[in-house]
Structures are given as C-alpha cells and as structure tokens.
Amino acid sequence: MGYSTNNGKLLTAIIIATFMSMPLLCSGSTEESQDDNVKTGWRLGGLLPTITFDSDLGLQYGALVNIFDYGDGARFPRYDHSLYFEVSRFTGGSGVNRFFYDSDRLLNGIRTTFDATYITDPLLDFFGFNGYQSVYNRDFIDPDSEDYISRAFYALDRKKFRAKLDLQGKIGDGSFGWLSGFETYHFSVGSVNIDKLNKGKTKDMLPDVSGLYDRYVEWGLISQDEQDGGWVNYLKGGLTYDTRDHEPNPMQGIWTEAIVLIAPGFLVSGDMGHARLSLAHRQYFTLIPNDLSLAYRINIQQNIGGQAPFYLQSMVVTSFLRGFASEGLGGRSTLRGILRHRVVGNGYALGNVELRWKFLYFNIRNTEVYLGLNGFMDAGMVIDKVKMNLDDVPENERHLFFEDTNDTPHVSAGAGLRIAINRNFIVALDYGKAFDRRDGDAGLYIGLNYLF
After folding, report:
1. Hey, how many other C-beta atoms are within 10 angstroms of the C-beta on 293?
2. HSE of 13 in the Cβ direction (CA atoms, 13 Å)?
3. Cβ(353)–Cβ(376) below 8 Å
4. Which domains does the chain have, with CATH numbers?
5. pTM exceeds cut of 0.90
C-alpha cells in the first residue's frame, strides 16, 4: 500500500492523541525522589488507546498499558519489572492480543522475558520465495488494470499463537552472557476467506479466484505436510555480548548475539524437524553527547539442518521482542518501505543503519519527554534459496511468476520521529521508500520503540 495525503491527517491525530494522553503517564505508587527526573516504584510508562498505522496492515485501534517498576530509583532509567498488555485490531482485519513480561530481578542474576501472543491475519502478505526470483506484478492487485486478478492475490489467511520464555545471564563479571529458552508456535494457514471478507459489502467485492498461495499448493511448491500450518516447538541456546548504556535507545555500546533454534522432528507437525542459526551484531556510536548517535545492525539467519515449514520462513530470530511481531524481510521491523514478507528464503542477510537525533527535551508535570528524529537505510537479500521444482507450473505461466535469477539486495531509505516518555516508553513513526518497484512503493509505520 502506498502513502496518501490522508496519512498526514492521521499522523497529526496520533501525535495529538499521544500528548493528550501524557497526563495519564505521571501517576505512580510512590513519591518522587529528590531528583525530579528519577522515577521510583510502579509507574505507568504508557496507558493509551492504541492508535497506530502500518501501510501493510492499516489503522490499528485498541488499548495498551505498559507498567514499569523502578524500585528505589537507584537504577533509573533501568527498571526492575515491566508488564505490557495489548488488545488491538487493524482495519485490514488483523488482530493482536499480547502479554509481555521483562525483568532482571525475578530470578537473581538472570533476565527473564515471557511473551504470550495471539495474532490473526486474514490477509497475510505472501509473495513466494527467494526474493526477486518470485515475480511481483502489481497489476494483479490493481482493480483498474486489465491484468487484475484480485486485491487478495498476494495473500493468505493465517492465525498464529506464540508463547516464548527466554532466560539470559552473565558469564563472569563482564559483558559476555548466555541465553536459553523455549518457544512454541501454532499456525493455522489457508486460502483467503473470500466469503468472510465480502460479508456485508455491496461494492469492492473480492472475486472468488485462486491466489498465489493456492497456486503454490497446486504446483507442489508448498507440501501437504505444511499447507495447513501446525505446531512447532523450539529449544533455544546462544551467547551474547552486551555493553549498551541504555536499552531503549543506546548512545554507545555493542549488542551481539549468536542464537541456535532446534526443532526436533517429533516437536514439529509433519515431522519437519530443522535447526536455525541467527547471528546479529548491533553497534551504537555517540556523535554529540546525549543528543546524536549513529546505530547499525547486521543480521544473518540461516537454516542449518532439515527444512523449516514455509510458514516459519519469515520468522526473524531474536532474544528480545521489541514489537508484537518479529518477521520479515520487508515491513516495519526489517525493511521499512518494502512489502511485508517480500524477501523469504532458507537464509538471508539484513543490514540497517540509523542516525538518531534527540532535538527537544521537556517535562509534562512529573513526566520526562524527549522528541527525536532519525534517518535510515535498510537492505536485505536471500543468501540461501528455497529449492523450487517448477515442473508442475504450466510453461506458459512460468514467466508470470518466476525469474531465473539469484536475489540481489532489496534497499529502502527514509526518516522517522520518536516521542520518548520517561526514556523507556517510545512512540515511533517511520516512513520508508523502496528503491525498486519490484518491492512495492513506500510504507508508513506508527508504533512503538526504535527498530533495534
């Protein structure tokens, strides 16, 4: 979906709603310390109506609450416990129901994070595998084009349940650490439910035609063992190196992870056991003390054993979820401005670079606020292709859906705005523009947190 002038009005409304909600953010269970900038006890980091926007999903509405326990304030802006609750829906039909807990005080010396999320997505983007090897033809979804098939041609219906527990601890007294965890997922996948989406409509009806997902199933590119979804359970282990000075928006330091996920065959529906390796390096540089920093992320993810089901190929492995979803490549959390899930393969390489500037600081009652701007460039590509046997694809149709080529970098760039409340609760807006029309046009994303 492209950016329109209506999004300018939407952005203005969201910023106004955020500032109007700030009086809700200053209540706490204990009194302030002598330093008014230090928070103590339990405090609302955010109690807001969920009003965000994503070019891939539409307008998000609902409610969220983020509660922080700062203890005696000695570690502020670090917190002892964080509780996050969200119930929201998107006008595109998706829904998010999430609980997230984060603490390094629940277990002595161990950081504990727990996430339980249920996401429905009746129009999940599906563009095939291997990036540019799979052709994206925007005429297929343009009702004004002679080649129009359906606005839902590049989509499937997916419901996802996720529960994950991560434990992280230090190795010695330094910055090296270990991580372990368990993750369980259940996916329900199928064709777009045309009847449900057309219910109650008298115009702009979706035609009852096969989409790309249906054709992949028909051609055997998605097997019977995986076409309907299923259960996947992961055992996780890894090593970390972390010297960040402040997690929500570091001004200096390094955050590096090496993570292995193992899903034995008996823990995966269809006996599709596999293993995945993720290497991620993030580094932060102070250019002007307190105000201007440069940050970059490099991430390589690779299937190192077996074959993951197609519905898991878009998962981006991480030890800490910064949003309700960690998927790509393409979209709000990986390649901003590029179509969601445009770049999917057995292995990928991802790079992001951002220049972050805090340009205004002020207080509303006892609430500390800063505004920030950031410019960014994102790039990613498939480095290990999904093997596709095209023998069952009609020869006269192959050129419409496939190119005989290796993937090349998918690149986008853009700018963003941040509104940070008590330095931990951060409202984020990003606008990204794709460099290649084969990746779509542009994307606007309004949500929470810095990208990394």
Report:
1. 22
2. 12
3. yes
4. 6-448 (2.40.160.50)
5. no
